[in-house]
Amino acid sequence: MILVTGAAGKTGLAVLAALKQRGATTRAFVKDDEQILSVRQAGATEVVVGDLLDADVWRLATTAVSHIYHIGPNMHPKEVRMGQLMVAAARASNCQVVYHSVVHPQIWKMPHHWSKLKVENFLFSSGLSFTVLRPTSYMQNLLPYLPAMQNDGILPVPYPAATRLSLVDLHDVATVAAKMLTEPDHKYATYELAGTEPLSQTAVADTFSMVLQRPVEVRPVSLETWQAQARTYGMANETIAMASSMFAYYAQSGMTGNPQVLRFLLGHEPTSLADFIKRIS
Predict the structure, then answer these.
(1) Would you say residue 240 lies in a domain?
(2) How far apart are CA 139 and CA 88, in angstroms?
(3) Which phi and psi (to 5°) does residue 170 adopt?
(4) What are 58-87's pLDDT values in tens digits?
(5) Quick one: 183 exposed, middle or buried, by C-beta within 10 A (0-12, 13-18, 19+)?
(6) What is the pTM of this model?
(7) Is the terminal CB of the chain with fewer CB neighbours within 10 Å at N or C?
(8) What confidence tens digit (pLDDT) does each residue in 41-57 have?
(9) How far apart are CA 138 and CA 61, in angstroms?
């Protein structure tokens, strides 16, 4: 039995689906009853409902489990505590952990990256068998911008057009995650998962332009404008603050990775940005 935490999010659903393709038996850890249907549809055999901050629920969720795929809620202020509880539950049930971290977690200027590094440290000193996956920014994160590109020819991003980011298709990440959870040869490995070389936002817009067959240009928006929009959508202040730190870091330094490791793990070329756009447009 494989436990997937954060199972109702986009990453968890993709990992459940990839595990189903491999014939694995899975248990989904979700926060409320409303998420049960989505994880069942993705392939979860069993579902546990509860809080990732509740040690008793962790004990229930890890009963008769051989592996945990732990996905901390994105930019959650108590992600470190959740990681501590995950490690404690894994030790009590003597199961292996595959931890969904992030590319370059040592960058302290991005608090949610720094939190994942702390959880990695708990794993490293736990005595458990573990694997750490460090994906870079998902191509799927561009989906909210697709209507603006299709309708207005604009890619509005909260950092400069020259900002270089390496991207990865979530489907590729899920494929690798399922491989880590069902094959025995990846204990104590830490893998960076980047699907592309670093791409400027202009290059991203040009790729959309080519595939959509219409002009697309980058139109940077100020951080203040993005923050105001996020508040309108009901985003929590702590999340806005962490995301703003991330965008400020992107503007200064970008977020670069190398696709060689992902190419090795997949056994073929990672999904290109052009192929991703063709799939979703």
Answers:
(1) no
(2) 33
(3) -55, -35
(4) 999 999 999 999 999 989 999 999 999 999
(5) exposed
(6) 0.96
(7) C
(8) 999 999 999 999 999 99
(9) 28
How big is the CA angle at 171 (ends 124 and 135), to the nearest 5 degrees? 35
Instruction: Specify if 144 maps to a domain.
Output: no
Specify the residue for token string 């998902």.
138
User: What range defines the domain where residue 87 resides?
Assistant: 2-137+167-195+257-270
Residues 85, 239: Cα–Cα separation, whole Å: 22
Please give the Cα distance from 142 to 281 (Å, whole number).
12
Residues 6+ apart with CB under 8 A from 52: 5, 6, 29, 31, 58, 72, 73, 82, 85, 86
User: Cα separation of 225 and 162, whole Å?
Assistant: 19
Look up residue 167 and give its two tokens.
Answer: 């991207």
Domain count, the chain: 1
- The pLDDT of residue 110 is above 90: yes
In a domain, residue 157? The reply is no
Domain harbouring 92, CATH code: 3.40.50.720
